[in-house]
Design brief:
mainly alpha; 62% helix; elongated
Length: 293
């Protein structure tokens, strides 16, 4: 097929066509951004997007269950529409927190791995449960069982590597590295992974027990989210309460900074915890004060 020669007319037509598509793309981008903003803010009065933002509560309740939604409805003073919004915000908060906990867990296990590799070699985790290994003692039987089972499973499938074995470990394994027995068995060096840890004082002891307790709280939060428990309430009540999440979030940030990690850089694009907590707090029913007598 003969190639058409370029002329001022067809070159101009191509430029015009390119401009046309550019304008269309720009319009669609602005339109999508508008829809995104509308659907992520509280619905405005008379907004046309109110019609597409929510399904009917009866259908929502059928899917989620009346029992599960009861706390959300009570927390919102019986307003079912707000209850659906609160449920979605709780899911959004859980998503953000779980991503942060996941990154923290990876950073923690890698730091522990680097530290123990110095003392026990690059197969230290597998070797820890061998006869005369560092965890081959009665007091660490559960730890040894978890490690041995994971190693056997990977070996049976021909997938074993030290990295894969590390990834098979649950958060509790890393938490218990700072318990008295495991901390002693690993040579009492694991606090070295927190080079920016403040010095202990008479008022606060930033020792292995302190780290264990902080990791235990983070582990509890992780498990709550993994089991789809709500995280926007007081533990036993129906009141909206975000202080618990904000406190745990700050603990994670603090431990990352103790490890010498730029938390803002690590969590860039993922950290929406404060923003979502603010949205949740705005759903609290306003309590009218009685006028003074």
């Amino acid at each position: 097929m003969k190639k058409q020669a370029a002329t001022p007319q067809n070159v101009g037509a191509k430029i015009a066509q390119t401009d046309f598509f550019a304008y269309i793309c720009m319009f669609l981008t602005l339109f999508n951004d508008t829809i995104y903003r509308e659907c992520n803010l509280e619905p405005r009065k008379h907004s046309p997007y109110q019609l597409i933002e929510y399904m009917k509560y009866t259908e929502f309740e059928r899917i989620i269950s009346q029992k599960r939604l009861r706390r959300y409805v009570q927390a919102c003073g019986g307003n079912t529409r707000k209850a659906m919004t609160l449920y979605r915000y709780n899911s959004e908060l859980a998503q953000s927190v779980f991503a942060i906990v996941g990154l923290f867990e990876v950073a923690l296990r890698n730091a522990i791995d680097r530290e123990l590799t110095k003392s026990f070699g690059d197969q230290w985790l597998k070797d820890s449960c061998l006869p005369n290994g560092i965890f081959d003692i009665p007091n660490t039987h559960k730890t040894c069982t978890i490690i041995s089972n994971a190693y056997s499973r990977l070996s049976r499938d021909g997938l074993y590597s030290h990295t894969k074995l590390l990834a098979e470990m649950e958060f509790g394994i890393w938490k218990y590295m700072f318990s008295p027995v495991q901390y002693r068995q690993t040579g009492r060096t694991l606090l070295h992974i927190f080079p920016n840890r403040p010095r202990s004082s008479a008022q606060a002891q930033y020792n292995s027990s302190y780290v264990f307790n902080e990791l235990d709280k983070i582990n509890t939060l992780r498990n709550r989210i993994a089991h789809h428990e709500p995280i926007c309430f007081h533990t036993q009540g129906c009141d909206i309460y975000t202080d618990y999440i904000l406190n745990e979030y700050r603990k994670i940030i603090t431990l990352l900074e103790w490890m010498g990690i730029d938390s803002m850089g690590l969590l860039y694009g993922l950290d929406h915890v404060t923003k979502v907590c603010n949205k949740i707090d705005r759903l609290r029913p306003h309590i009218k004060q009685n006028p003074p007598a």
